[in-house]
């Protein structure tokens, strides 16, 4: 689905993209540093923490679809999604600080309970509502596919620029602040404040299209008749939703195993600071690639071919990292890490546009708009892939005999770290490439429009 009409100025795109500064003040901290803070600073068991994270996902799985449906049913002066993006971030800020403020004077059981409550509130409630609303805005502030891709690029440029900053300076900043629990709590407070400010700026930098322009004014009464379960059933009828959701989960699992690089750098490379170098190879390449993405997609004639080719490159790149890792060549690891990131970048930038196309497919096949629930796949993917990935890594390392702050880890732990950081990313890239081969939603939408004699304008404004 494309339209030539322009909806956004350059400052709208920058304003929207800045929202991922706020998102990564939470996400980057959780994926890169939460586990090592809990195990090596607080002294909690990696196995128990991993189990608590996994149990927390039960609540997450329910809340994703709940908040997606609530966004679909919301009608305010601010729009459908913006209120859900604005207010929950206050809770994100507070619960992020709580996750990095485990009371050291409490007993082990109390510490685990405190962490579980703070982590569940952060992920299942506040971050879920904020993240689904933020992702949904892609479909609610423009109906131009090119602009949606640009929004995705701006969003992920800000996301990876924030990751560069957080992953590069956090450990050094914690040490500069005195280290220990005080250092981690202080840096969490700083990131929480930064996130709160940038999230608020992002919310008020854009406006949702009037519902008449979204094609929903006449549908509002009909949409309210849809129950949660009917909406969920309609969602699952869309095979492309299932594919994009599975793809999102795999990409977030990938991010989680890459996050194990903190342990890999510390215990295999022998220098914890090298994690910053590996992160820079990823994040700088990602930012450069995303800047060029809208032009590349135009030249490639769509997202499908570019995403497929990109993940073929990613598989080759991660295989190169694997070989370089066993050779012990850090320069080669950095070079192949950058190559793999170059291949991953297109999907990172156009995933929101793909989800919007999947949402259009639901509209074309069922007559109902379910943008909020459709974008639940982004939050669901982040939490199932990201959090379960972290939990699985923790379980595997714990089973291998990981000992926090040990001068030398067991051979089984070393082998597990090599599998998680060298082998698992290559495997996950291959799985994503296979999933993407079935994600031909652009072609499917075009065929449906031709079959039903629907013009692009009619699709944009919801006339089906």
Compute the average pLDDT. 85
CATH architecture: Up-down Bundle
Number of strands: 0
Rg from Cα = 22 Å
Distance between the termini: 13 Å
Tally of domains:
1
**Helix fraction bin:** over 70%
- The name of the CATH superfamily reads MFS general substrate transporter like domains
Structural class: mainly alpha
Number of helices: 20
What best-fitting shape do the alpha-carbon axes yield? globular
- Contiguous low-pLDDT stretches (5 residues minimum) are 457-464
Helix and strand string, N-terminal first? HHHHHHHHHHHHHHHHHHHH
Q: Major sheet, described briefly?
A: none
Q: CATH class, please? A: Mainly Alpha
Fold-level CATH name: Growth Hormone, Chain: A
Percent range for β-strand residues: under 5%
Q: How does this model look, in words?
A:
With 464 residues, the chain is mainly α. The chain has a single domain (13-206, 222-460), classed as MFS general substrate transporter like domains (Growth Hormone, Chain: A, Up-down Bundle), CATH 1.20.1250.20. It has helices spanning 10-17, 19-42, 46-72, 82-86, 88-99, 108-140, 145-176, 180-203, 220-225, 228-237, 239-259, 261-267, 274-300, 303-327, 330-366, 371-374, 376-399, 411-436, 441-451, 456-460. Helix 2 (19-42) packs antiparallel against helix 8. The longest helix has 37 residues, at 330-366. The two termini are 13 Å apart.
Q: What is the structure about, briefly put?
A:
With 464 residues, this protein is mainly alpha-helical. The protein has helices spanning 10-17, 19-42, 46-72, 82-86, 88-99, 108-140, 145-176, 180-203, 220-225, 228-237, 239-259, 261-267, 274-300, 303-327, 330-366, 371-374, 376-399, 411-436, 441-451, 456-460.
